[in-house]
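note to self: dont lose this again. the chain is below, predicted strucutre after it. 62 aa total, dont forget to put it in the shared folder this time
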Amino acid sequence: MNEMSSSAIFNRVREFSPDIICVLDQDGEFVECSEAVEQILSIKSNELQGLQTENGSGLKLL
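---
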Protein backbone atom coordinates (compact mmCIF):
# COMPACT_ATOMS: atom_id res chain seq x y z
CA MET A 1 0.00 0.00 0.00
CA ASN A 2 1.38 3.40 -0.99
CA GLU A 3 0.94 5.77 1.96
CA MET A 4 1.32 9.52 1.52
CA SER A 5 2.69 11.70 4.28
CA SER A 6 0.35 14.22 5.85
CA SER A 7 2.40 16.96 4.20
CA ALA A 8 1.95 15.38 0.76
CA ILE A 9 -1.78 14.98 1.34
CA PHE A 10 -2.08 18.62 2.42
CA ASN A 11 -0.14 19.78 -0.64
CA ARG A 12 -2.46 17.81 -2.95
CA VAL A 13 -5.56 19.21 -1.26
CA ARG A 14 -4.15 22.73 -1.50
CA GLU A 15 -3.21 22.22 -5.14
CA PHE A 16 -6.56 20.88 -6.33
CA SER A 17 -9.04 22.61 -4.02
CA PRO A 18 -11.34 25.22 -5.58
CA ASP A 19 -11.18 27.06 -2.24
CA ILE A 20 -8.53 29.47 -1.01
CA ILE A 21 -6.19 27.67 1.38
CA CYS A 22 -3.36 29.61 2.98
CA VAL A 23 -0.67 28.75 5.50
CA LEU A 24 0.24 31.54 7.90
CA ASP A 25 3.04 31.67 10.43
CA GLN A 26 2.60 32.49 14.12
CA ASP A 27 2.67 36.24 13.37
CA GLY A 28 -0.12 36.04 10.79
CA GLU A 29 2.25 36.33 7.83
CA PHE A 30 1.37 34.40 4.68
CA VAL A 31 3.78 31.55 3.99
CA GLU A 32 1.96 29.98 1.04
CA CYS A 33 -1.48 29.99 -0.58
CA SER A 34 -3.34 27.83 -3.05
CA GLU A 35 -3.66 28.76 -6.70
CA ALA A 36 -7.38 29.40 -6.08
CA VAL A 37 -6.30 32.82 -4.77
CA GLU A 38 -5.58 33.90 -8.33
CA GLN A 39 -8.88 32.61 -9.67
CA ILE A 40 -11.00 34.08 -6.88
CA LEU A 41 -9.16 37.29 -5.92
CA SER A 42 -7.09 37.92 -9.07
CA ILE A 43 -3.92 37.96 -6.95
CA LYS A 44 -1.00 35.63 -7.63
CA SER A 45 -0.42 33.36 -4.66
CA ASN A 46 3.25 34.37 -4.42
CA GLU A 47 2.22 38.05 -4.10
CA LEU A 48 0.70 37.26 -0.70
CA GLN A 49 3.87 35.65 0.65
CA GLY A 50 5.34 37.85 3.32
CA LEU A 51 2.19 39.96 3.76
CA GLN A 52 0.66 40.00 7.19
CA THR A 53 -3.01 39.73 8.10
CA GLU A 54 -4.61 42.75 9.70
CA ASN A 55 -4.54 42.23 13.48
CA GLY A 56 -3.80 38.56 12.83
CA SER A 57 -7.45 37.90 12.02
CA GLY A 58 -7.94 38.75 8.36
CA LEU A 59 -6.43 40.35 5.30
CA LYS A 60 -7.63 43.77 4.28
CA LEU A 61 -7.22 43.83 0.50
CA LEU A 62 -8.87 47.15 -0.30
